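Q: Could you fold this chain for me?
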Amino acid sequence: MNETVITNNDVGTTDTPLAENEHVKELLGILRENGKDDTGLTALINHVGEMENFVKLAESRIADMKAQLDEMKEVQDHPVRHALQNTIKALETKIVEIKEQIKELKNNIIEGCKNAVGAFKEKGAAVLDRLASFFNIKGFLSSINKNIDESIMLDDKAMAKIESFSKEYHETGRHLKNMGRVLIGKPPIDVAKESGKLAKAVSLPYKAHKTVQLKMKTGVIAMIGSLARLEQRTTANREVKMATSCEKKPSLARKLKVNKERIRQKDLERLLPERARVQGVEV
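A: Sure. Below is the predicted structure, expressed as structure tokens.
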């Protein structure tokens, strides 16, 4: 269950790097001062920064796609141009969605840090052992990962269309060139080996964009792993406390056994003088 202590919106601006946010820095300071492991939280913060940088790279690659498409005279009057324009628009939509999801992710982490600090000040260092309960970010990570996968699919489809167009373009050019050679009495030539040059040139920004998306996906997976380790530490701390508590506090069965033994001892002590008197009379 997620623990919330403070739920207001004054968590800082998401334009500021997470590592520089006042609430994040305060919580990291508290963790270190109390000898708690801060590697899980630090990893989450670093991965968010990496993802923001990848978003900027992805936007740059989309700009390259537009420039490349405008320069390619071969596709000006071909249906592939319209298809690639639609792909670029779809990729732009995806990157806008990812940016918004990262913004919400940062807000949630900042809010979680603020709540954790508030809980520490109210309840003490014990709350630091259940740090994962202050962060509800799995949903954001899942949504980002989905958009990344869809962007990669768009890149793959675009490159497949470009490859198909390239083969068609070069095949048409070869036929026209050979017709001219035949008309002047020259033998036809095979230029199929050149068919990949156009595809490589036009596909380059899509391939670069896909590479960025794959790196971003690696970052998301790493964040999920960091969160899982943070949750494991919370579970481990809880289990240690329960085990320690069980060692300090006797079980109910143990308590009943001890009480039963005490009652038996008292009964023996009460009956012992009576037996002594009876034995005295008999003597």
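A (continued): Residues 195-248 form the longest helix (54 residues).
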